[in-house]
Amino acid sequence: MKLVDHKARLDGIDEKLIEQAKKSVGVDELDAAQNKKLATIEEKIAGQDKKIAGADEKIAAQDKKIAAVDEKIAAQDKKLAGVDELNALQDKKLAVFDEKISGQNRVLIGVEEKLVGYQRQLDGLEDKAKKCGDCDAKLAEQAKAISEIRAAAAKCGDCEAKLADLASKNAELVALVADLAKKLDAVTKVTPVTPVTPVTPVTQAQGSIAIRSVNVHGDEYVEIACLFAPLDLSGYRVTAFNSGKEFVFPAGARIEPDTSIRVYTNRVEPMTGGFSFGSSAPIWRREGDIARLFNAAGILYSEHTYGAPPAVPEPLKPPPQPSVRGSIAVRSVNLNGDEYVEIACLFAPLDLSGYRLRAVHSGAEYVFPVGARIEADSSIRVYTNRIDPATGGFSFGSSAPIWRREGDVARLFNAAGILYSEHSYGAPLAQA
To answer: Rounded to the nearest 5°, which phi and psi values hold at 294?
Structure first.
């Protein structure tokens, strides 16, 4: 019985072991399934890691793009700053242009004032012409007075200087009377006044026109300059000494103040007057020559020598040249802003030591210091209070105005007290 029971127990144990084995197989299968799930999860995690790495790469690329955009924005900001600077410079330039335009407007106003003054002077000359019926008698008296002075010159040490000055004034009066006679004839159709022959051929106009240069390179030409007043060149002649060629200015030919004209050998240039010898062959001797300018009466007005000209025969040598008085003049009086008087010079430099500039209305007078000079083809200014080295550095040193705004007269005297130039503007007061 015991063996039977024991076997039964063993059979029960075997069954349990079999069940345990079966359960163990199920656990193994479960573990395998769990391992597969874990492997799948790990694969998914690896895939997620790859996606995260790809996302990081994309983010890095986006960061690079953002950095590039930031750089472009910074460059645009620099360009905008440059544009702002350029705009500021343009504004400055526009301001300078505005100042220049304002200055030009002031100059134009001054020119208009000069034109008004010239018109008033012309009106005054016409009035004088209407009243001048005895000019011949006055000129005869003047010539007689000159003859008397000549007779007394041997007894008078300084009469020659007075005679020369009187002769110059007489020549100016003759020129004025001739001009008035032409105007009077044109207006009233009466017989023009016949002027008395001047004692000396030197006239004031003679000092305001001159041959400036002769160009022998390329298109040959002679340049003639004018200062102070316009001049009628009708009948004037330009001669070349070596070739003997001569150019005669046609009727109506003119030269304006502060300008120059040219007489070409063959070319016709309207911009410089349109004057030409009309010669296809050279006129001026390249090694040197003499150019001469004569007025319509045959009086030598100017002579220009260059290089090594041929010997000049004694009879052809020019008469005494005009005094320096004709080459310097008061050009204008400026009343806008800093008051100043402008003085111009042509042809030759001049020592102004002791020269005096006087305002007739106020009586103020400026004396040029020792060593003061004015160069040829240039101008200087005498300011009321300002000192401007660029225009000479001359000043009255007055904080109060000197020049009468309604009109005044500026006079320039040399060191000996001789009146060299006078400029009127506006409506000056009656002069003594």
So the answer is: -115, 145
pLDDT of res. 193: 33
Quickly state the pLDDT bin for 188 (edges 50, 70, 90): very low
CA distance 61 to 307: 83
Instruction: Report helix, strand or coil for 407.
Output: strand
Distance from C-alpha of 326 to C-alpha of 212, rounded to nearest angstrom? 16
Number of Cβ atoms within 10 Å of the Cβ of 262? 21
Give tens-digit pLDDT for 230-248. Answer: 889 999 999 999 999 999 9
Q: Which residues share a beta bridge with 36? A: none
Angle at 206 between CA 201 and CA 209, to 5 degrees: 155
Residue 406 one-letter amino acid: E
Q: Which has more confidence, 139 or 269?
A: 269
| CB-based burial label for 397 (10 Å; 0-12, 13-18, 19+) | exposed
Q: How far apart are CA 43 and CA 36, in angstroms?
A: 10
pLDDT digits (tens, 9 = 90+) for 205-218: 555 788 989 999 88
